[in-house]
Amino acid sequence: MAITGENARKKRRPKTFSPSLAGHCLRYATMEMLGFGRALDEETRDAMSQGSRRHKAFQAELGARFPMAKAEVALKDDVWGVSGRLDVLLETARGPEIIEYKTVGGDIFDVIQSTGPLVSHWAQLQLYLAVSAIEHGLLVVENRARDGRVWYRGRRDPAWEAWLKERIQRVNQAVATRRLPSREISFRCLSCDRWQRCFPTEEARQHAVEEHPAWEPVPPVPPIRYDHVSHEDEPGAEFLA
Ligand code: SF4
Question: pTM value?
Answer without folding.
Answer: 0.89
